[in-house]
Amino acid sequence: MCFERDRLGPAKKVFAAIPVKNVFSYNAMLGGYSRMGLLDDAWGLFERMPERDLVSWNTMIVAFARGGLCSEAIQFYMRLRRALIGLSPFSFSGVLVACLRIGDLGLLRQVHGQVLVLGFMSNLILSSSVVDAYSKCGEVFDARRHFDEMEVKDVLAWTTLVSGYARSGELESAREVFDQMPEKNSVSWTTLISGYARSGLAIEAIEIFREMVRGGFEPDQFTFSSCLCACATVASIKHGKQVHARLIRTDFNPNFVVLGSLIDMYSKCGSLKMARRVFDLILMDGDKDDTMLWNTMISALSQHGRGMEAMRMFREMVKGGTKPDGVTFSIILTACSNSGLMDEGIHLFESMEQGYHVIPEEEHYVCLVELLGRAGRFNEVKDWLENMPFKCSSSVRKAGGEIADRETNGLNSLDDKTSMGYVFLSNIYLAIGERDEAEKNWKLVNKRQWRKERSISWILVDDKLHSFSSSDHLHPSKEEMYSILELLANQIEDDNSVT
């Protein structure tokens, strides 16, 4: 009871007052420590236990796995096997989580084999966990094979397979399995919607959301978040407002993830005013200390080129008692870079550790390099790179282009086959008048057949999404569009000649 109420002190006192402690009272303390994330306390108590049963071992294995100490979870499982006191399906649930987090497919196959040998595959939860583990390790074929071998399949097992296909980008297979489900719930619908949204098929995701609502299923927090992200992806404010309206009519309080997605949707759909209005309403309701919401709103201002407003909001955030985190500084440094606020950005970077107790990481150095590079302060870029507290990685090299010929050789040795670093380096050479060096970089990009990532624009006409990129010749209406563009260009020239 004390642990359920998060009252650690009273729980310890009650436990200490027990005159004769048995394995059940010890297990109660182990379970309480585990629920509160006090893994060191749980571990110490476990080692002092005069007697342990299977529940004691399983509690520790699951606690370590969920707490991210995957190696310790696997070691405890191996100790349990050597203890020769037996195993249960619950023993394997923690081990499967550990396999998943460390991405060890070989270990996963060994655990699966032991589950088969012990005859635990009839346990639905464990079987679904095996399907989930294979799919999250990228082995969807093995996940499907095991799924087909299951004698009994509940909605969890079906949803797990749908999630596996969707996560792997095999949306046709995901939809096929989804349509075959004998029973569906809100989680299975949300899983499919999320898969389409992650794959960039936003309109399809929104249409599935409509099917879900028409079918009488109630969307949850994850459903709304996925749909709002889909609307933001294609900048469809029409669909975004429809989802927002449905959210208002739904009788539950949205969490911070949904509210952040709502702000982000309005911002990316071009309505910064509505994004700010949603944010202000949240503050009026008293929710003022969630860092993620502040980050989302500051990012929205940054994306719209409102660097000074972003800085003012950052100061308001700090003044109100909300603690900025690493993400906050990545966003605000980017805002300073985009808006030419060089001195402000450098001051923020230098005050991160002392003023806000946030240790600068690689992403912050990337932002700083970009900030200085845009200002043409190339010598300072080199100084910062040379004095970094960790080794300069590929992302930092891409951001800075390394400024000099010596670093071009470093770029050549990078693993990724993109042109980003060379594009940035070429831009630096052009900025300082070294056109020949810029051309060398472009020739290298062309020789290696690397392509700069293209920007794409979308427009929604009669519920049909049209996408365009630079020099696009694939659209079926390209002749008409280029004809209109030519007329507009001629009209501009005529107007200029008159003036």
Automatic annotation (TrEMBL):
Biological process (GO) annotations?
A: plant organ development; RNA modification
Q: Which Gene3D superfamilies does its entry note?
A: Tetratricopeptide repeat domain
Q: Which GO terms describe its molecular function?
A: RNA binding
Q: Which Pfam families match?
A: PPR (PF01535), PPR_1 (PF12854), PPR_2 (PF13041)
- Which InterPro entries does the UniProt entry name for this protein? PPR_At4g14850-like_plant, PPR_rpt, TPR-like_helical_dom_sf
Protein name according to UniProt: Pentatricopeptide repeat-containing protein
Q: Which UniProt keywords apply?
A: Repeat
Swiss-Prot/TrEMBL PPR repeat ranges: 22-56, 154-184, 185-219, 290-324, 325-355
Query: Per its UniProt entry, which superkingdom is the organism in?
Result: Eukaryota
